[in-house]
């Protein structure tokens, strides 16, 4: 990997990290129009945002990709709920 490619990767990682930090600050402190989120809600939002970032895997966001992510996330939640319910029997 060339030095330029290496610097680009680091910059992209820092940008994503800064975006997540900014999103966390928004959730933590709120705005004039929105109250701050509680810790459990904030962690859930950040977890979902991280999953979405991984799902995109560098691809440009499109409505179709967003819909695909929602379908996959919904399927994972349903499978998880089914596993819990089956475990209770």
* Broad shape: flat
* Total number of beta strands: 0
End-to-end separation in angstroms reads: 53 Å
Q: Indicate how many domains the architecture comprises.
A: 2
The overall average pLDDT, rounded, is 82
Helix content: over 70%
Portion in strands: under 5%
Class from secondary-structure proportions: mainly alpha
Rg (C-alpha, Å):
17 Å
- The succession of helices and strands, N to C, reads HHH
Continuous helix count: 3
Largest sheet: none
Low-pLDDT regions: 5-14
Notes on the structure:
The chain is mainly alpha-helical. It has 2 domains: 1-58; 60-89. Helices cover 79% and strands 0% of the residues. The chain has 3 helices and no strands. The N and C termini lie far apart (53 Å). This is Core-binding (CB) domain-containing protein.
Compose a concise summary of this entry.
This is Core-binding (CB) domain-containing protein. This protein is mainly alpha-helical and 89 residues long.
Secondary structure blueprint with pairings:
Blueprint: H1 3-29, H2 39-56, H3 63-87
Helix pairs in contact: 1-2
Kindly list the characteristics that best describe this protein.
mainly alpha, 2 domains, 3 helices, flat, Core-binding (CB) domain-containing protein
